[in-house]
Amino acid sequence: MEIIVNGAPKAVIVLPAEAAPDEQLAARELNAHLKLMSGAELPVASVRPAAGGVVLLGAAGGGGLAARVRARSDDPAAFAIEVAGDTAAVAGVSPEGVLFGVYELLEQLGCRWYMPGDFGRVVPQSATVALRAQATVQAPAFRGRWFTVAGARDEAGSAWQRRVRMGGPFFPPAHGIAPFKATAGDRLFEEHPEYFSEVRGKRLKRQVCLSNPEVLQLAVAQTKAWFRANPGQPWMGMGPNDGGGFCECAACRALDGDDFDPFSNERSVTDRYVWFFNQVLKGIEDEFPDRKLCFYIYHSYMRPPVRYKPDPRICGAFAPISLCRVHGMSNPVCPNRSYYARLMEAWGKILPELYERGYCFNLACPGFPFSRVHVLRDEIPKALAFGIKGWRVESVPHWGSLSPTFYVAAKLMWDPAADPDALVRDFAERFFGPAGAPMHSYLARMDAALRDADHHTGSSFNMPDFYPPALRAAARRELEAAARLAPDAPFAARVAAFRLTFDALEAFIAMLDARNAQDWAGAKAAHDRVMALGAEAYRHDPPLMSERAFTSYMRRFWSQATLDGFARVSGENRFVAGLPDAWDFLLDPQGLGEELGFFRADLTGGNWRPLRTSSASWGDQGLYDYRGVAWYRARVAVPAEFAGRPLRLWFGGVDEEARVWVNGALPKLLTAIANREVVPGDSPGRAFVPFEYDVTDLMKAGQENTIAVKITNKQVNEMGTGGITAPVMIYSPGR
Ligand SMILES: [Zn+2]
Ligand SMILES: [Zn+2]
Asked: What is the C-alpha to C-alpha distance for residues 124 and 111, in angstroms, rounded to an integer?
């Protein structure tokens, strides 16, 4: 059915007389894209003309088509399209369905929205536009389909979400229990500390003392008040505040099921919360018998309850932060992630309504290339089989590398049977035009690299392992070929956008290589290049790397050690010696090391084994989940020329606390640490922050010196890091 011929409209859009906002938006979106495509728009009328082509939206097409949709699904996003003769009709279960039906028509015409705004929009050029004859009915497989991409809630971001058919139930935020939330003031805590968690004998505002009957009464009253104030809401979020600090009082502990969560290294508190939610639901039942409570399956309440049966009005959303984010649940390379399938299966047996609110990005990474297509193709169909009702996926706007992932995710949330390979090819061919072939092989290569890598550390620690030199060389050749094949707008800028994040990756790896070689000038130069490329990426519209993620994670994990290390060997200061990457290493789970003198200069024996430090994480070396004490020892020669000169022992960072001995003695810590008493020999106790000691009197120039480091790694660490995480060196300060 030709609706535009040689730039002239040949049909009329007919809207119902009292069209809903989404139906009006559907007409505007159809015309806006037809205009970009052909230069022409269709006239819009509220009454069907006596003759000629028509595109009937919503009720303008009569009730028959809408009834056909309803026979298939009651999902508000469902729609039907019928094109026959000179009549096209789009109907939905709701006005949203009409809008999504129009997006389906535009996609059939070749339109795509790979990123927010004009940059990510693909509209083919054609003076003649024809709809194909069809009788299409579509309904989404998952009722809830949402990306919470930080920064994508502006106008362009919201428009993008709708164009990729995000919608449905939005799982509510579920941290905290009113009126005890972490975000509430301190007044209630000051008046009633007994309402809050007892931790090591002290009441803290961290969590709530769930077993206190007054706490339950207040929570019931607040929940009722909230539902009265929000009459349209079917559910409300409730749960622990983010972080730990659960009540240790005898009555709260008596509510637990004596289950331990090895991933968070804490007792599982699922049972006490299930008990509490059950009581709250009972408490509001007289007034709100059908409202639901939503909580996150997360942290030390990730494992299913072992003691209490949850009320079916409890809804859960999986937020498996302590499981690997690189791999999918059936990827044989990742035993850790396979636990996710067991969790989904177990919770699916006890709760009727479950959602997924996982992490669709490389957690704590500044935004280097990362693809999760291989995860989505594995986990989205499995989630449907496990009974998951919807998605509210957390991500960050790293559009320069994650946009194919977002595109595939949106499509699979709608239809898990869609072919991910075809979708990535579609992305490459339409978005990069003449550069489609090399860009497709680049995207597929980078995705497969992550899928197949036996590396699971968070942040950017594994970038050199995911993308080794030969792979990067091949990827670089593909990007260069793409740039040659697409010299013109808009394709050149699109290739350049993806190349920018790859350039940032290469500069980042160059920085790590230089640091590992104790080449601090080289590391500083590469660091500055990463920062410049990052700034170019996050100033792009849409951002190719998220400004917030890039700046905060570069600072937290990488910049401090690189810039501080460079400063230590610049100006009047002199580099003396670098400690090796591999140290002798020993686990000390019982904490016996100090008694046994593991710090002694003359220690021999004891089955120490080599472990890499700045070039490989604990996770890379079989210690992903180790929490406890461990020891490192190394020997370092100080050249004779430094006799009589001041000497400093500098650490680029440890995870978490370190105690350091030099030739068997504790050196003086020089780093000033705010708000913490500095004990000689102790480190800051803050991961990834450089610190240093005065070792002038303890180190001997002209001979080998022994350095011993006791690491205490206690906290939950969803990253898989631990111990010495950055280079260690000795320098001599100038004046
Ligand atoms: Zn308690
Ligand atoms: Zn993994």
From this structure: 7
Q: Which residues pair with 239 in a beta bridge?
A: 176
Cα of 197 to ligand 1 centre, how many Å? Answer: 6
Q: Is the pTM of this model over 0.85?
A: yes
Q: Write the pLDDT tens digit of every residue in 684-707.
A: 556 788 999 999 999 999 999 999
Domains and CATH numbers, the chain: 2-139 (3.30.379.10), 173-290 (no CATH), 574-732 (2.60.120.260)
Gap between the Cα atoms of 130 and 127, Å rounded: 10
Around ion ligand 2, residues with a beta carbon closer than 5 Å are: 324, 326-327, 334, 456
263 CA from centroid of ligand 2 (Å): 14
| Dist CA 678 CA 562 (whole Å) | 24
Instruction: List, in sequence order, every residue forming a beta bridge with 56; answer none if it has no partner.
Output: 14, 89
pLDDT on residue 627: 87
Residue 710 to residue 685: CA distance in whole angstroms: 12
Confidence of residue 675 (pLDDT cuts 50, 70, 90): very low
pLDDT reading at 716 higher than 80: no
| pLDDT tens-digit series, residues 424-446 | 999 999 999 999 999 999 999 99
Give the three-state DSSP class for 284: helix
The upper half-sphere exposure of residue 303, i.e. CA atoms within 13 Å in the direction of its Cβ, equals 20
Compute the distance between CA of residue 191 and CA of residue 194 in angstroms, rounded to an integer: 9
